[in-house]
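Box 4.2: Ligand-aware structure prediction
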Amino acid sequence: MSRISKTLMGSVAGLAMMSGAALADDVEVLHWWTSGGEAAALNVLKDDLAGKGIGWTDMPVAGGGGEQAMTVLRARVTAGNAPTAVQMLGFDIQDWAAEGALANLNDLAAKEGWDDVVPAALQRFAKHDGNWISAPVNVHSTNWVWANKKIFDELGIAQPTNWDELIAALDKIQAAGYTAVAHGGQAWQDATIFDSVVMGVGGPEFYKAAMVDLDPAALGGEQMKTAFDRMAKLRSYVDDNFSGRDWNLASAMVIEGQAGVQFMGDWAKGEFLKAGQVPGQDFLCFRFPGTQGAVTFNSDQFAMFGVADDQQASQVEMASSVMSPTFQSAFNVVKGSVPARTDVPDTDFDACGKQGMKDLAAASASGSLFGSMAHGHAAPAGVKNAVYDVVTAHFNGEYDSATAVEELVAAVEGAQ
Ligand code: GAL
């Protein structure tokens, strides 16, 4: 463990008890929330901290999924200049904790009773060696479809519930002259669709075997070939300009009525809301056909890095804000995610948010809740990146499905 983190272990804890606006300094926050909906959600946090007298120094690093943000973070830490707080996902949090770089939030967590209200699936990432090392702000899930309601109504399309119905719906949308699937060709976006397709092909058991347990038989079997065949089929519904497009611009295609659906995590809802759209009226949210009952999740968490003594009170204040039930409601209503605490009422959430909360609880109870591979909650970054490479190469036509299956087995094995 590094010297700075040992110091932190002691002093953050002490300051937690006497923290207050008078002691607090500004926080510098590294994050990748740069789209309209994301920025709106971030403002909820900025305003909350401003109310406590804590200023905000913004360190945005654009790039959905946070890959670029993690590269910048590594450079900052290496240069001995870590930000105060960092948005982080799943296994990345564990990796930084293992390096001894993260502050220990145990005293605050004990004082506020985090153990009782944060579900085990999130504690698995927010704790390291039994110590709280991050504050979970939300739970997103990746197996959603966002649809333009006017197009569905115009073409008489009912919400598809399985793969064949989905394909029939996409064919209809395409035949009517719309782009059927709004998509951005970036590895993390391809992988986000892959989460849902894998779950849809073989259900929770197959998803777990392949994406979480990394079982070579599941990664290399017939069901995985079917998953790649389905990815290739979905590729036939995107427009010619999809390559490199940011996810929020793909959402805009659905919002503006150019495209029928987007397969994306529920941060997409933030874009629809920011555009003034209402679920059930302007857009539809439903689970990726064939994955109903299951949830592939990711949880944005704020991890605190080793900083000068005078900034540690702000870190504790920020963690405390993030974990407050009223904040968790206000923030997630805007962000599209659901609260990381189980004791937050769904009163202020729209229909999609209420369904998200219900689905999460049901999936957790039935053992059908699994971390998203695409968003760093199924396997460490090395494996995730290996999966990205194969999924994207296949999506872009470099591999046929049989080759992709072989490459996947080899890439995942090589990355472990
Ligand atoms: C995810 C993150 C979300 C959202 C999305 C797109 O990884 O958990 O909060 O920001 O990327 O940027």
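In the box above, the bound molecule is beta-D-galactopyranose. The CA atoms of residues 33 and 106 lie 27 Å apart.
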